[in-house]
Amino acid sequence: MPLPANPAELTLADARDALRARTISSVELTRTFLSAIEGARGLNAFITETPERALAMAEDADARLANGDGRPLEGVPLAIKDLFCTRGVRTTAGSRILDNFVPPYESTVTQNLWNAGAVMLGKTNLDEFAMGSSNETSFYKSAINPWRAKGSNQDLVPGGSSGGSAAAVSAHLCLAATGTDTGGSIRQPAAVTGIVGLKPTYGRCSRWGIVAFASSLDQAGPMTRTVRDAAIMLQQMASVDAKDSTSVDVPVPDYEAGIDAGVKGLRIGIPKEYRIDGAPPEINALWAKGAEWLKAQGAEIVEVSLPHTKYALPAYYIVAPAEASSNLARYDGVRYGHRASNASDIIDLYEKSRAEGFGAEVQRRVLIGTYVLSAGYYDAYYTRAQKIRTLIAQDFARAFEQCDALLTPATPGPAFAIGEKSNDPVSMYLNDVFTVTVNLAGLPGISVPAGLTADGLPLGLQIIGKAFDEATVLRTGHAIEQAAGFTARPAMWWAS
């Protein structure tokens, strides 16, 4: 295929094929993205740029391609969410407390990507410790959504927590990026920036070397421009890992090979509980249109019930902070990270280092988590939330007796203005209303861009699948993608 005038326009699949055909070099492609990143610093998508490392990796890739021994992602430039530990490269988790942390080890997922030949452009912005739905809790200030409403120059949030990765993919600053999803942190930012975001089944990708938020919910996944690109990325990210006890030893199929299978003969469930009061009419209209697209391609549409959905959000905001309070106890100002300089004794050092190092949202969730785990409240809150979690998983199991996948909205609305919900945490938490159930049940889900609001902002549809059935999620997502024909791009206002 002929190369576009700007190689940054290539999809990951097309770039991979062009690199293999030697119609473009990895160094050329990498320089294109490094230049784009430099010109887009106003988006604040990256916390750390790694141009020297990127060019060295690209040169190595070109040498391999010249010798005919290129690996699956040889020479493909990627961005990495700054929650993945990268050996010798600062890893902050978007927090002051890890501002100076340089890991001596590599996360399993990123190591898998480097073993596949990928090139690292840098580390992307995120909500502090992945706690947020807008990227506004980052110590390094929010990434900015490349999209703007028609006739407006107001900055919008890129979603969270993987907002920097979403902004980078949407603005064509990389071919793809890694994200993590605890309650929607891949799918929600993907939806509001007009890209594809895939949360795999819990245990499909190793969590080792990823800074932990809520260990029973966190899962790494790809953020890409197309469903095919997501399939290619997941193929390399997924693996069993002896270093992660929650990693599951199940075969990793050839995801890309299966995405063109279509949806003929599949039963697609529409959960009636996802029709919520106050949702913008555009959301429901797009959802109905998505069902029609799948029906037109031969799928059967069936209504299903997930009766405990209404309890999902409160259950999530008990379980996740509880695990966070435990995971974040390790940040004490002693072994690594920020250390207070004016402490009088060891207890004072702990208190001041944590008070200075953690932002307001992280402090809020640690306190909530400590409260729900405390004596006298454990059974009233945490135990009850875990019971709800079991009931939600059972709801999905019963629904999947009637269908092969579920179709739902990805978000309750488009991107909102930076600062609009900062003082209303409950309103912020409601952004995850369509996504948290998937994490509580450990299931795979994908957000696919499917339309625009009247103001010209992207909206996404979500496909939810059975455990370890990412193949069906991807083929259904691909069918939605083909029917929607979503080709809209944000105007490059940041480059002017």
Strand order of the largest sheet: 1-3-2-4-6-5-10-11-9-7-8
* Helix and strand pattern: HHEHEHEHEHEEHHEHEHHHHEHHEEH
Major beta sheet, specifics?
A: 11 strands, mixed
Oligomer: single chain
Low-confidence sequence ranges = none
CATH superfamily: Amidase signature (AS) domain
Give a count of the beta strands, DSSP E runs of length 2 or more. Answer: 11
CATH class membership: Alpha Beta
State the helix count.
Answer: 16
* Portion in helices: 25-40%
Q: Please state the average pLDDT score.
A: 96
Radius of gyration: 21 Å
Question: How many domains?
Answer: 1
Structural class: alpha/beta
- Beta-strand residue fraction: 5-15%
Termini separation = 30 Å
CATH topology name, in short, is Amidase signature (AS) enzymes
Shape: globular
Explain the overall architecture.
The chain is globular and about 65 Å long. By secondary structure, it is α/β, with parallel strands linked by helices. The protein has one domain: Amidase signature (AS) enzymes. The two termini are 30 Å apart. Helix 2 runs antiparallel to helix 3 (51-66), helix 7 (227-237) runs antiparallel to helix 16 and helix 10 (312-327) packs across helix 13 (378-399). It contains 16 helices and eleven strands. The mean pLDDT is 96.
